[in-house]
Amino acid sequence: MSNESKPNTLNVTMLGPRGVGKTTLLASMYNEFDSTVMNIGLTLTPSEETSNILQQRLAELKQQTEVFSATGGIDGTNTPKDFVFGLGMIGKTPELTLNFKDFPGGFIKDHPKDVKTFLDDADVILLAIDAPALMEAKGIWHEKINSPQMITDLFKHVVQNLNNTTKTKLLIMVPVKCETYIQTDAEAKKMLMRLKEGYTPLLNLLKTDHLLNQIAVVAAPVQTLGSVRFTRIEETEPGEPRFFFRKTSPHALYNPQDVDQILRYTLGFSIKKYLDDMSFFKRMLNHLFKITQQFEHAVRKMAGSDRKESGGFDIIQGLTLLNPRN
Amino acid sequence: MKYFFMTAGSLPQRDYLWWHFIASGQPLINADRIDLPHIEPFSDLNEWLDGDPGNSSLILGRDNHVFLLLTDLPTTRQDYQRRTIRNSVIFVSENDADEKTIRHLAAAVIESIKSISDALNQALEENTESTATDWFSFDQHYWERNFLPNSAIFAQKLPFDNDINQFWRKLEFNIAGDTEEKKQEIRAYLLNNDISLPEESKIFVLVTKYKDPKFYFRNANKLGLVLTSLEKSDQWSGNPEPEFIKVIVHNIANFAVKSAKKIPKKILFNLAITFFIFAPFGYYFFSNFGFVAESQDNAPPAHSQVNADKKAEERATQESESAAINAQNNLAESQRAPDLISNLYQTPETYPQKNNALESVSTEIEFAESTAVQEINATAITAKDNLNFTSHNEIQSKNITKLNIGNALLVNIFIIDNFWNDFKRPDTVAQIVLRMEGKDYVELDYLLPNLEKGFFTNKKPPSIIEQITVSLTYGFEQNKFNGTIECPKDCRYVYGKVENIRVNQSTVDLFIKNEDTSYR
Known about the structure:
By secondary structure, chain A is an alpha/beta fold. Helix content of chain A is 41%, strand content 21%.
């Protein structure tokens, strides 16, 4: 795990410019955590602060589906915030702490030093991508909204510091607001292709030979609402877009899709890292006395089963970093 | 006084940043972090708070000067994703008068955040031109003219115990749940100018919603009074109960309960009676010999009774006022409703004749061959009227009707049903979507006024419920369309279809029939 963090802490940082959906993604994941882990005996326990704040965000998110014309999103983040979860077997002390860091998207431009620190400390980076900006109008809004070049520049710093920080990382590229674009396999493939085109410099940077075994990259489109579709972009003035969304029908309900996949990929990566980083002595003890065997087995099962690798999902590189050893 | 503001703009590139007010008439300038007050060990005051944008927080403290931080005050502005923009503000005193003002402001905000939120919403303005280099400005004159004097008015001085005790003078760390009673105690303290704020650099008062009390216990040396909803106790407490104590207490309690269950009931009853008889004597004895008096001196003054009476009186006044308003509205409504309908009866052609088309549910309306199209063709619409069509000929074309982007159309909405009867809320927003086959469509958002009650019934002819000006942003080329009308959560969903459309000289009439019977 991270050098700078407490033992057995997995640091996950959200990344993306303002308004693309970082906090929305986090709130959606929070909603899906329990249902994702519960049936294999695991539990994700938020701290009281985390629980209260994310409940509020989740309520705002669900309100999007109570009006036909969905408003743009939940309250914008204006200060960095850590959301802490304990992962462990039900009824037992958590084995692993998941620390999710969320911060204002404007920090990328206005406080790049802070963002670089967040990225250095992160084991997993969730890059939220505004899918309508990527896909619509031949992608003319992609640069403005998703700032792919700024993201690439940040990663140049990340790869330089990699051996002094976490040594391995997982980058999950998460198109959000993508309900309109993955209704069929063909559409999902088109979006995946468009994503790779839109982030070519970043992907080229990360697939340098020595990084292939250090940085895993996954594309994981998620539908945080499920019942809302993008409808149009209007320019409030030339060059300034405003995005509009609405429900698929008056009675459509909140119905997120595939949000659990983020957690599956994250945990698959983290359990392998947890084992790899374990000292020899602890590993022997673990092997002899099977201290955390049950937990490891549960996490492997969760990470391995039902993990999607098609329909818009793709392991772009670093498969070996994602498959837990048996 | 110095002002710092954190706000965001409507454009994508204008995310939340701290800004410094320099002088009236000048735009705000980007503030450096080192210019902002902070309390060690954190470089950012926000790290003391819960970071939840949905709830406002407050910090009153002293760095080199007394300051007041208020966070996440909602505005009426929205960003490019249509999210509410929130302001934060730091007032920093530069002299004794400023310090007094800041104390009053803090007291006023603890009472009600709305006034300051609204005042800042007015005073802090954004230049929304994308090429502007001066993004924000602060109308200090407006602020001082409209708000600052008022803060002294509604921050009324509350009675305070003259027995100023150590609790308020030293303002040592104490934490409690975020209750009205505790807020009033803090207000009373802030408004009492006989008590100076401590001179040391620390936080005097902090109010936030979702921050773990353990965090504040860890940093107690830099804190005074803290209110957080995550603190369970509604009494001031400065010492955390050690975890092992809690375990011991819990185990003792369990043991006591189990043991009590084994004692015969008769003996237990006798013990209880004995306790209740002798407990008052015991209390009297101990209190008069000083064992209890000391803790009373440490307790902050209670104003709950004064406030409870005041609130009861305010509530009674509000109730009688709203009853009077309701009576007036009822009278106005009953007088108004007939006028709406009688106006329509005066000119029969202003409403459609009842026909089979209105009774049946049709999914599409075809312009090309229907009567409606003939009406359209027969009606002259000129570009010089209310409409800004670029080509007169296009409107007159038989195969409807390519409207260019940016054209405005005056639309009368007729509702052919009584589904509005249930709605009691005056600010109902309804949306009409005219969805075309393919991707082009027109979306209309408008505000329905006064959907109080008793609108229409099937027996009455439909009347205009609203006239709106619609900006058509996409053209439609098909000769068919169907429309939907829906309402947001406040007024339940109504799913209707446009049954008929009529284009008049300068307006378009949409006749919408409700199809959603689920609410009935």
